[in-house]
Design goal:
- This protein has six helices and two strands.
- With about 160 residues, the protein is mainly alpha-helical.
- It has one domain.
- Strands 1-2 form a two-stranded parallel ribbon.
- The longest helix is centred in the N-terminal third of the chain and has 22 residues.
Length: about 160
């Protein structure tokens, strides 16, 4: 993944999330759904898992100093069954965490995850795979910005 694509992807996702802060109509009330704490944890762990998978494939050098992660980086890059599991499980955690969100948006996100997996493991062209990653990232950022309400904060009695 080129630095330009990585930067563009990060900027686009950040702008979508920033819109949430700047545009008072976001999230879309009447359509927005509050996450439970467990749902938020599932989404967070899933995002970290997919981030690890992507960086292990495209930026292996990030993990040179992390000897405990080297076996997992090797499994991801072997492109075998373990690599598939290390991709599918985080994607499913995200989808499970967002299961109460708008079905259409969830379907779009699911399809982008499928596109990422198919282009990765069925030998698709790299450019198509990178486009699928871009689409999945934007779909996730948009879904969260448009429809997700944070978990309720509970107050601890003193």
């Amino acid at each position: 993944m080129t630095a330009g694509l990585s930067i563009t992807l990060a900027v686009c996702a950040a702008l979508i999330v920033l819109a949430r802060i700047v545009v008072p109509q976001l999230p879309v009330m009447g359509r927005a759904v509050r996450l439970s704490i467990l749902d938020a944890v599932l989404v967070g762990v899933g995002v970290l898992g997919l981030l690890f998978h992507c960086t292990a494939m495209f930026s292996r050098g990030l993990y040179n100093g992390a000897s405990a992660l080297q076996p997992f980086v090797g499994l991801v890059n072997a492109m075998g069954g373990a690599s598939i599991v290390l991709f599918v499980v985080p994607a499913l955690l995200i989808l499970i965490g967002l299961r109460r969100q708008q079905r259409g948006a969830l379907a779009v996100l699911s399809l982008t995850f499928v596109a990422v997996g198919v282009t990765m493991y069925a030998g698709g062209p790299l450019q198509l795979h990178l486009a699928a990653i871009f689409a999945a990232t934007i779909a996730l950022a948009a879904l969260v910005s448009l429809f997700v309400l944070a978990p309720r904060r509970t107050r601890v009695a003193k």
